[in-house]
């Protein structure tokens, strides 16, 4: 524990230093300051637990320093020292929340007594802070704890489910084996980015719960919300009589409308059939199948039904189209192939002619076409996929129509670009000449790629493969090579050289030169000219 003593009189500080048994009180370090300015510097750089401070000091007095410490270091216990028994000082010290007020000159044992009580107070405050932090942590973890309990309701293991029911009953949720249930499943991340901060877990949970409250549930119907492993929000509605079945379909439509207004986005809300709690798992499976078969990602409320028929494509129709697409890609008709696939996907989606199984089969046929082409043309996977679209993304593109369209668009475009490898050497030469001719400009990768009519992502990869450097590094190296040539001429000012190669900021030019050449432009010129 550390203490700071502040007094503008060095004789007072010296007396306290030699008269107070700081070691016996358990202090590790004692800091001394003769002004508020010195004290603030110590507070900034060292951990202080208790501060004793004189009031009457030139410049910023002790009361002003205490006000600063109160606002910026609220955990520090503060003791005021003064040789003037003025009521206004005592009154102000109370307002500032000072721990003690000692009238000087005071016996050292009285100062020690005050410090000991301050130490005890600090430890007590520490305990209170620890309890408060634990309470905060518990509140922060409460949703996760309740989430786990609710999630265990859906467990296959009957003992786990039973234990969850007992825990929920203790929390006031009377889930019984014969409770009537209906499950609501919200699938929002198929429609929005998981990285979008507007659609974080806490936000969506609050919206779901608040919308339920606004739309209104009969008092004997209970709701339990959790998030499953697929990051879909699952709400269990249950009751122990027939009230749940009296909720009309319009109630769910109204709930969807309120959620949509709160979240500001459309999504899919899937509703199970009515069942008993013991038949919960078949209803979960039914919801997952209903969701999977929404291959067009249609928004709104979807009532699941075990009697619903799912249309699937005839295998002969699929094979016929797959053969046609293979011929197109083998002939190099990548754009035509892409348009044909997208047209076919749009048709089966709008006509509701296919379900999840059909999309899986279609995905398998398309990936087989693409990967067979890559094998036949000695194309490596690393030459196709990049940060804009990964290998894993095409493997996961079976989930819906939009994902399959995106996969087809990317693959057809990437393979078309790779077919143009013969012209890549010329493109790189053109790019190098363009960079050299525009050495006085702050060129971007996009400008270089646009000059050779390539996408920045694709041309960056080709340039690195052929030259061993990325485009940004090459641009910098060309600029520095030109700069080195100009530095060989002692008559050209270095500031002019900086401008000539596109660095309007001389300091930036110096930094870049030193980074690549391990010396400044001035040092290079001296070494070059001897």
Topology:
Blueprint: E1 2-6, H1 10-19, H2 22-25, E2 29-33, H3 36-45, E3 50-54, H4 62-72, E4 77-82, H5 87-95, E5 100-103, H6 108-151, H7 158-170, E6 180-187, H8 201-215, E7 222-227, E8 233-239, H9 249-263, E9 268-271, E10 275-276, H10 280-292, E11 300-303, H11 315-330, H12 334-350, H13 356-376, H14 381-384, H15 391-395, H16 401-419, H17 424-437, H18 445-451, H19 456-467, H20 471-487, H21 494-500, H22 506-517, H23 521-529
Parallel strand pairs: 1-2, 1-3, 3-4, 4-5, 9-11
Antiparallel strand pairs: 6-8, 6-9, 6-10, 7-8
Helix pairs in contact: 8-9, 11-12, 11-13, 12-16, 13-16
- Estimate what percentage of residues fall within beta strands: 5-15%
Low-confidence stretches: 137-141
Tally of domains? 4
Structural class: alpha/beta
Provide the CATH top-level class of the largest domain. Alpha Beta
How many helices? The count is: 23
Cα gyration radius (Å)? 37 Å
Question: Main β-sheet, in a few words?
Answer: 6 strands, mixed
- Inertia-based shape: flat
Q: Helicity, in percent?
A: 55-70%
Classify the fold: give the CATH topology of the largest domain. Answer: Alpha-Beta Plaits
């Amino acid at each position: 524990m550390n203490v700071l003593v502040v007094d503008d009189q060095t004789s007072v500080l010296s007396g306290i230093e030699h008269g107070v048994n700081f070691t016996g009180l358990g202090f590790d370090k004692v800091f001394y300051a003769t002004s508020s300015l010195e004290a603030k510097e110590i507070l900034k750089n060292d951990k202080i637990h208790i501060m004793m401070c004189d009031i009457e000091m030139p410049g910023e007095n002790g009361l002003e320093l205490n006000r600063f410490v109160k606002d910026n270091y609220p955990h520090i216990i503060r003791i005021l020292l003064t040789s003037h028994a003025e009521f206004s000082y005592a009154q102000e010290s109370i307002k500032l929340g000072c721990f003690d007020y000692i009238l000087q000159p005071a016996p050292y044992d009285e100062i020690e007594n005050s410090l000991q009580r301050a130490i005890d107070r600090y430890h007590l405050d520490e305990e209170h802070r620890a309890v408060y932090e634990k309470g905060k942590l518990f509140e922060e973890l409460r949703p996760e704890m309740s989430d786990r309990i609710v999630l265990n309701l859906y467990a296959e293991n009957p003992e786990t489910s039973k234990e969850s029911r007992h825990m929920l009953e203790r929390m006031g949720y009377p889930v019984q084996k014969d409770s009537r249930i209906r499950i609501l499943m919200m699938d929002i991340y198929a429609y929005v980015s998981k990285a979008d901060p507007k659609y974080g877990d806490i936000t969506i949970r609050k919206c779901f719960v608040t919308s339920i409250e606004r739309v209104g549930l009969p008092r004997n119907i209970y709701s339990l919300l959790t998030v499953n492993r697929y990051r879909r929000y699952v709400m269990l509605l249950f009751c122990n009589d027939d009230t749940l079945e009296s909720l009309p379909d319009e109630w769910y439509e109204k709930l969807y409308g309120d959620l949509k207004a709160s979240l500001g986005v459309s999504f899919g809300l899937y509703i199970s059939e009515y069942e008993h709690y013991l038949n919960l798992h078949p209803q979960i499976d039914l919801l997952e199948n209903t969701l999977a078969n929404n291959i067009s990602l249609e928004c709104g409320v979807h009532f699941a039904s075990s009697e619903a028929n799912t249309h699937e494509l005839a295998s002969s129709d699929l094979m016929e189209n797959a053969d046609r697409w293979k011929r197109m890609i083998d002939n190099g008709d990548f754009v035509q192939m892409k348009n044909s696939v997208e047209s076919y996907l749009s048709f089966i989606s709008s006509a509701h002619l296919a379900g999840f199984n059909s999309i899986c089969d279609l995905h398998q046929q398309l990936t087989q076409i693409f990967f067979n082409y890559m094998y036949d043309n000695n194309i490596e996977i690393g030459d196709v996929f990049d940060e804009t679209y990964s290998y894993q993304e095409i493997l996961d593109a079976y989930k819906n129509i939009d994902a399959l369209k995106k996969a087809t668009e990317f693959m057809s475009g990437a393979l078309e670009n790779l077919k143009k490898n013969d012209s890549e050497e010329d493109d790189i030469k053109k790019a190098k000449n363009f960079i050299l001719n525009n050495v006085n400009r702050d060129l971007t990768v996009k400008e270089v790629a646009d000059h050779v009519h390539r996408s920045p992502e694709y041309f960056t990869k080709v340039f690195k493969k052929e030259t061993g450097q990325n485009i940004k590094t090459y641009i910098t190296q060309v600029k520095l090579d030109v700069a080195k040539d100009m530095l060989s001429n002692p008559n050209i000012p270095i500031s002019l050289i900086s401008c000539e190669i596109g660095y309007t900021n001389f300091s930036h030019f110096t930094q870049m030169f030193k980074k690549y050449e391990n010396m400044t432009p001035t040092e290079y010129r001296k070494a070059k000219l001897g």
